[in-house]
Amino acid sequence: MKRIAIFASGTGTNAENIIRYFKDLKSTDFEISLVVSNRSAAPVLQRAEALGIPTLVFTKESWRKGEDVLNAMHNYKIDFIVLAGFLALVPTALIEAYPDRIVNIHPALLPKYGGKGMYGDRVHEAVIANREKESGITIHYINQNFDEGQPIVQYKCPVLDTDTAATLAQRVHALEYQHYPEVIERIANAIN
Ligand code: GRF
First-to-last CA distance in the chain? Predict the structure, then answer.
């Protein structure tokens, strides 16, 4: 049984999609065991609770030091960590304790349009402003720097001349919902 934690800061539509995917799998090989946030007002917490998943919120200080978060991972016997719209830096202690076991999704084709401050509509606005012909998602391992960990896979979609950040975001979200849970299953399955 692989026990998975999701880290999220915001709306949590990906988190909910991932939780539902693994519930529907009805596999005894995986469980979404915990949802963790850095914001007590994050709607993702209610989504998780409605689906019966325990939640934890840590303060800025705890995220900075890392110890409390790492202890929680051990208490919940977490094997694998999934970031889904998580906007704080993952503590070094966690990255060291979970090598190749923490993945993130970014709503653009990294290494373009990544880095600190590049999240949400800002990413799509920059893609449109640069007249890119395609965008998409990047699923990658994480390291110490925002959006710089080793890529696992990318999926692409077109950028239309008529696109606004909102319409492009919708197309990119569809790719996220379609692919992220399966990739998590595949990567989590491969760890021992
Ligand atoms: C997604 O677009 C994801 O790629 C990015 O943050 C967004 C989270 O959206 N990392 P949601 O909270 O899952 O709705």
Answer: 10
